Sequence to fold (123 residues):
Amino acid sequence: QVQLVESGGGLVQAGDSLRLSCAASGRTFSDYSTGWFRQAPGKEREFVAAITWSGLSKRYGDSVKGRFTISRDSAKNTVYLQMNNLKPEDTAVYYCATGYAIIHTEAATYNNWGRGTQVTVSS
Fold:
């Protein structure tokens, strides 16, 4: 019902910043949360951050806490992930997904996914 498109990825150096966008279209509703996940080669998909529709509740993975900030612009149906002080270990394909209204960190609880955007951080 909701189509998600990620954008904003690219190649940067360690210490640089990027802002990812997750644009939603189609039949959107105000009863779901949006999460960001990432997957690096040979690794399991990892929870990065999530935000409720209202934007009042947020959660971050331990590896990005203090460096990344999630936000949303409801008028644009877009969720953002501001990534500061990027590290080579942040290199991955970043996916956004929507799911249950309450924030969860498990990928299996999200039933709608975008196709991902590549983030590469060089040393």
User: Anything to note?
Assistant: The radius of gyration is 13 Å. The CA atoms of residues 26 and 98 lie 13 Å apart.
